[in-house]
């Protein structure tokens, strides 16, 4: 079957991963699209579960073989991408796909899958709060944080290009609103 696609995009630190994890607990019919990346695992992240952690050489071979539906050099020298085989794996299991990907990748998937995709932009209250959340997560070096802050400023300008803007001010409210959006889309 061809299922649907639910795309969560936002600058790093806006709360996508937290909201997507919440939705995965609530909706058994959703399955997370595990992206491939050339960055190293962080904290408790596991290969196959959070990402397919692969070498840059392997990544670029896969690009040449056109294995990605979209990919991006999200940070200088660090690639992330959605494998075509990942979407097929999830649809073949009879599930819908949920994505946590960067703003440009999210818009690229929306353009490709059109009405089968719901593209949601997660909006933090302000750039200052976004910076606090990102620093508070405690997973990135000072250099990586600066790179993420710089990119975040640009990414906040893309919000209007998405189907929906989901405000993540209070986390419980954002999760409840995300549930409503997903339920409405899956039953439409
Ligand atoms: P992203 O996946 O968009 O990079 P995360 O889900 O990792 O963002 O969230 C970044 C940090 O902000 C995490 O430490 C998370 O617990 C925290 N966070 C997420 N949403 C909220 C919120 N509404 N209020 C306060 N902290 C939040
Ligand atoms: P992180 O290193 O914090 O896990 O992710 C950095 C950024 O890359 C986040 O904005 C995340 O959503 C994005 N990202 C993760 N997977 C993909 C992917 O497959 N494609 C694209 N374009 N971005 C991705």
Q: What does this protein look like?
A:
The radius of gyration is 16 Å and the shape is globular. It has a single domain, classed as Rossmann fold, CATH 3.40.50.300. It has helices at residues 16-26, 56-64, 84-92, 103-113, 127-137, 142-155, 171-186, and strands at residues 5-9, 30-32, 35-37, 51-53, 68-75, 78-83, 96-100, 117-123, 164-167. Helix 1 (16-26) crosses helix 7 (171-186). The protein has 188 residues and is an alpha/beta fold. The protein contains 7 helices and 9 strands, in the order E-H-E-E-E-H-E-E-H-E-H-E-H-H-E-H. It is 43% helix and 23% strand. A 5-stranded parallel β-sheet has the order 2-7-1-8-9, sandwiched between helices. It has a 4-stranded mixed β-sheet with strand order 4-3-6-5. Bound molecules: adenosine-5'-diphosphate and guanosine-5'-monophosphate (5GP). Guanosine-5'-monophosphate (5GP) is lined by residues 12, 35, 39, 70, 72, 74, 80-82, 100-102, 105.
Secondary-structure blueprint of this entry?
Blueprint: E1 5-9, H1 16-26, E2 30-32, E3 35-37, E4 51-53, H2 56-64, E5 68-75, E6 78-83, H3 84-92, E7 96-100, H4 103-113, E8 117-123, H5 127-137, H6 142-155, E9 164-167, H7 171-186
Parallel strand pairs: 1-7, 1-8, 2-7, 3-4, 8-9
Antiparallel strand pairs: 3-6, 5-6
Helix pairs in contact: 1-7, 5-6
């Amino acid at each position: 079957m061809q299922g649907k696609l639910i795309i969560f995009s936002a600058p790093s630190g806006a709360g996508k991963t937290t909201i997507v994890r919440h939705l995965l607990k609530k909706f058994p019919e959703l399955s997370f699209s595990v992206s491939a990346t050339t960055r190293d695992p962080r904290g408790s992240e596991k290969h196959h579960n959070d990402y397919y952690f692969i070498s840059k050489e392997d990544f670029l071979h896969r690009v040449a073989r056109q294995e990605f539906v979209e990919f991006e050099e999200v940070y200088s020298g660090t690639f992330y991408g959605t494998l075509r085989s990942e979407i097929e794996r999830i649809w073949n299991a009879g599930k819908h796909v949920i994505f946590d990907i960067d703003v440009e990748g999210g818009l690229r998937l929306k353009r490709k899958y059109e009405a089968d995709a719901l593209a949601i932009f997660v909006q933090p209250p302000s750039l200052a709060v976004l910076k606090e959340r990102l620093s508070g997560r405690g997973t990135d070096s000072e250099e990586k944080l600066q790179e993420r802050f710089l990119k975040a400023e640009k990414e906040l300008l893309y919000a209007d290009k998405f189907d929906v803007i989901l405000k993540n001010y209070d986390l419980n409210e954002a999760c409840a609103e995300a549930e409503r959006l997903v339920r409405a889309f899956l039953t439409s």
